[in-house]
Amino acid sequence: MVIMSFVKNLYRTYSISLIILSTQLWINFTSYYYTNVFSMESVLYINNRLLLFFLFQITLLEFLPGNKYCGPIPTDNRQITPVYKENGVKSFILTCLITQFCISIDVLNPLVIYFNVGIVWGLLNIYTLILCFYLLITIPSCFCDYFHNLNIIENFYIGQELYPIFHNLNIKFIINCRIGMMLWATLLIIYINSQYIMYRKSNPAMKVNFILQMIYIFKFFYCEKGYTNSLNIMHDKAGYYICWCYLVLVPSFYTLSSYHLVSYKGTNSENSKILLFTGLLGIILTYWIDYQKKLFRETNGKCKIFGKRPKYLNVFYLDNHDRHQTNKLLLSGFWCISKHFNYVTELIVAYSWCLCCSNSIHRYMYPIFLTGFLLHRAERDSERCNNKYFNWHRYCEIIKYKMIPGIY
Predict the structure, then answer these.
(1) Residue 324: helix, strand or coil by DSSP?
(2) Helix orientation angle between 341-354 and 365-388, rounded to the nearest 10 degrees
(3) Which of 34, 89, 176, 237 has the smallest C-beta neighbourhood within 10 Å, fewest atoms?
(4) Distance, first Cα to last Cα, the chain
(5) What residue ranges in 12-167 does DSSP mark as E strands?
(6) Are residues 252 and 296 in the same domain?
């Protein structure tokens, strides 16, 4: 009975979890394949540096200067309103510089990480389990739910709190933005240094792959304030589902193409130039699309988009206190093309940096996964808006397609 209830809720609320779970199995079973020589010395070496990395990111978040701002007010009145510090760009730049400096003075050996990356994935899986069990046992409502509703499995997987706090630290924000995303960038630096050490040069494909991803990650931190208003932050609780995604999936899956490029000796510079141009165009368009919505929201529609006053639709909903409220949905600029045209440009960027690799399914795991993830998110967003706004159908009549005009 307990299992059936859990599976039912999992399918209804997190159908993308089926992809996540299969992805996790793939990572767990192939960790050994991505470990050249397993030894306890390598485990201790990597474990120590990962723990120092975690501590370093928490230190940067706490002590680097940055403006504090409040996140969105939770729909559940029992949840606190989160407070964030806007110092992501500074943390990113400093992390990259310190990582390269540690490699140059042999404090961090990139080849040890590269040849034992399976150990990195395994340790991240262990850290995730420890963290989620900690979240499970430190929230008193869990035990009450367990004895009355027997849904402890669901609490562990989906989570119980939107913004769990540990010594004034927002755990979900640290995991998502400071550890997961920073570890992605750190592994990119390790991989490109590994190729240079092994072959005394970095080929054009690796350079394009590295440049596009680093610019993409920089854009994330530059627009980090907007990310705190995304679906992941506002609606996903801090359970195993979201913690594993950012602690394991992001550093492992998202960097697979870079990992395989270390040993790739192709030198097709013309294709690399085309992919670099395509990827940069995708990044610029993604930023431009997001900026239009940000500008529209900040000015309450009193701005110009493509040189004209923007069109919008007033939609109505009830707030937490059952009071009627109004919101404006943008109908101009890129937002008249489809509901989520920025997802299309995101996919263009992802496929651009992965097409640098030779043909292998392992190289394309990230863009394939991202395609499924964004398709699911588009559906999830439409369902949420349909339940929230009284006249959502009117918006759907004006903007008919979710991502690709004429197709979907």
Answers:
(1) strand
(2) 170
(3) 89
(4) 38
(5) 67-70, 83-86, 165-166
(6) no
pLDDT classification of 70: cutoffs 50, 70, 90: confident
Q: How far is 123 from 43, CA to CA, in rounded Å?
A: 8
pLDDT tens-place string over residues 352-371: 988 877 666 766 778 888 89
Instruction: Give the pLDDT confidence score for residue 9 in this predicted structure.
Output: 46
Which of 267, 288, 305 terminates a domain? The answer is: 267
Task: Specify the number of domains making up the chain.
Answer: 2
Helix (H, G, I), strand (E, B) or coil at 255: coil
- Which amino acid belongs to residue 380? R
- Rounded to whole angstroms, the Cα distance separating 3 from 19 reads 19
Distance in angstroms (rounded) separating the CA atoms of residues 190 and 206: 12
Same domain assignment for residues 10 and 89: yes
Outline where DSSP puts E strands in 255-357.
312-318, 324-330
Six-digit token string for 41: 């010395």
pLDDT at 299 over 50: yes
Domain limits for position 353: 268-408
pLDDT digits (tens, 9 = 90+) for 180-229: 999 999 999 999 999 999 988 888 888 999 999 999 999 999 988 878 77
Half-sphere exposure of 255 (CA within 13 A, CB side): 30
